[in-house]
Design goal:
Blueprint lengths: L10 H16 L25 E9 L3 H8 L5 H14 L4 E11 L4 H18 L2 E9 L9 E12 L14 E6 L8 H7 L6 E2 L2 E2 H5 L7 H10 L2 E6 L4 H5 L8 E5 L8 H8 L4 H5 L6 E7 L4 H10 L4 E9 L3 E4 L1
Parallel strand pairs: 2-3, 9-12
Antiparallel strand pairs: 1-4, 2-4, 5-10, 5-11, 6-7, 8-10, 9-11
Length: 331
């Protein structure tokens, strides 16, 4: 008699995996969580807001996963998945409330799946949001054994009259760039083409580990700044680099003028450039060392940078807003 296990799906391993990940998820539970894992749906009670707006975002990790497979390291890509979602909704002033993940594989291995969810849990703790559910799908014949895919979905909240949409941006506003932790989670198809030996030494460490450095989560830092300063616009520097993402914060006919010598280009990007990528293409593909950009009043800029540094991050005045024309001008 044919069985599901003979078809390649191990239900018992699925049960074991759920038990392995429950502890990771429970560490993220915040006040609004109403039920434990195992229900058909996650439930979350909204905090008290006058006119709440829910803000949602979904994303994956892309081909950075391939590096994780090759390095046999699975405990950080979950952080990337959370970061890509929460940093996006943060751009509109939203505080993340809860997160759900989706993991798919060819053959389920409980420890690897648990490592991935451990990363998701760590990312949620950093973003102060709850991991209230998810799905793990075993799909033999669709994915190669040993390979996984992961995607996530985040919901956040913001008062309607506090939504940041770029409508108050004006000429002369300053652009502050907050340092990234590395490549983050974009451009890895190019990275993998350039870096063919993941065991290669890079400043005393395997380059594979360097390019697996998880994406920085900016939630706590930026929400603290929003309590004290007027933040007019924000951009998460993801795929498309500076050219695509910075203009997304503008509603009007404005241009971002950015001084590319105003911040430290991370060493990993200098290395990638040395392997044959033109500088302009680098800025159109990677974050180049700046993972998040704030648009603020000029008179607040230096104090904001001081506060960012007090909270343990590095930031720079990277440019300003100019009326007329659209896009980004790198100087």
């Amino acid at each position: 008699m044919a069985t599901y296990k003979e078809a390649g799906v191990n239900i018992e391993e699925g049960y074991r995996t759920v038990n392995l990940i429950k502890d990771h998820a429970s560490k993220t539970f915040t006040t609004g969580v109403l039920n434990n894992l195992g229900s058909f749906a996650g439930m979350f009670e909204l905090p008290k807001y006058n006119n709440p707006v829910l803000v949602s975002g979904t994303d994956g990790v892309g081909t950075k996963l391939k590096v994780a497979f090759d390095m046999n390291k699975y405990d950080t890509i979950g952080i990337d998945c959370v970061a890509m979602c929460v940093n996006d909704i943060l751009c509109h002033g939203a505080k993340p409330l809860f997160f759900l993940d989706y993991i798919a594989c060819g053959k389920l291995e409980g420890e690897k799946a648990a490592d991935i969810v451990k990363g998701v849990s760590n990312g949620c703790i950093d973003a102060e949001c709850a991991l209230i559910g998810g799905e793990t799908a075993e799909m033999p014949g669709f994915y190669k054994e040993g390979e996984y895919d992961i995607a996530g979905f985040c919901v956040g909240i913001v008062e309607k009259d506090e939504i940041i949409d770029g409508s108050e941006i004006e000429s002369g506003d300053m652009l502050i760039g907050i340092e990234s932790s590395g490549i983050h989670s974009n451009g890895y198809s190019l990275v993998r083409k350039l870096v063919t030996d993941l065991d290669e030494d890079f400043n005393g460490e395997k380059i594979g580990n360097v390019i697996l450095t998880p994406t920085k989560i900016y939630v706590k830092l930026v929400l603290e700044l929003m309590k004290k300063y007027k933040i007019k616009g924000m951009a998460h520097i993801t795929g498309g680099g500076f050219y695509e993402n910075v203009p997304r914060m503008f509603k009007g006919d404005y241009k971002a003028v950015i001084n590319k010598d105003s911040f430290n280009v991370a060493e990993i990007f200098k290395h990638l450039m040395s392997l044959g990528v033109e500088e302009d293409h680098m800025f159109n593909t990677f974050n180049m060392g700046i993972g998040f950009v704030l648009c603020v009043n000029a008179e607040d800029s230096k104090n904001i940078i001081k506060d960012i540094e007090k909270m343990g991050d590095r930031a720079y005045e990277i440019g300003y807003v100019e009326a007329g024309g659209k896009g980004v001008c790198l100087r």
